[in-house]
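explain this:

___
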Amino acid sequence: MSPVRVLLVDDQALFREALGTLLSAGGEVEVVGEAGDGDEALRRAAELAPDVVLMDLRMPVLDGVGATRRLRVEQPGVRVIALTTFDDDEDVFAALRAGAVGYLLKDVSSARLVEAVQAAARGESVLQPSVAAKVVARFAQLPEPDPAPRPQPLVVPLSERELEVLRLLADGRSNREIAGELFLAEGTVKNHVTNVLSKLGARDRTQAALRARALDLL
């Protein structure tokens, strides 16, 4: 399998250098370029056509939210993961509304980051556990339409094991972390996640968590 092509966007050159070294170590990721601000990121993305962009949010010239919004219009096939120091509500929801498919903090482990990059390249969403909790909480606060239709029950119910996987998935855990928690092989967890998404009719992990909440499964 070809490595995922990644563009690093951060205004701190030392951080970009260190991050590039960590990401490239295992061979699953190829860092194809760097940018120090959002405006440069747009130019570099047009030149390099990366699969995934790791985007800092607070940068000069053009911030990460603005760059993400433009990138999603100019190159809709490129997946953006916000990688930042901050997880306050304003930053989180601004990035997600702009089109980011993931939101991670800079204290994330290199293994988790590589896994997130690979997941984003596959079309999945990736959220820090604290961010996933914010998304689910915000969804729960939204006013329901009047009258509020009750979600249809699942045609095929989730097994007890799938429910365990769903609860950890909703907490923002990666497949590797779920495997460790439940003492399962990572491939087994991946199969369970696929079944959970299929039964819930969800396209990704975030939508699965939201639909599970609507069905009172969490």
About this structure: The longest strand covers residues 29-35. The chain has ten helices and six strands. The longest helix spans residues 186-200. The beta strands are 4-9, 29-35, 52-55, 79-84, 102-105, 126-127.
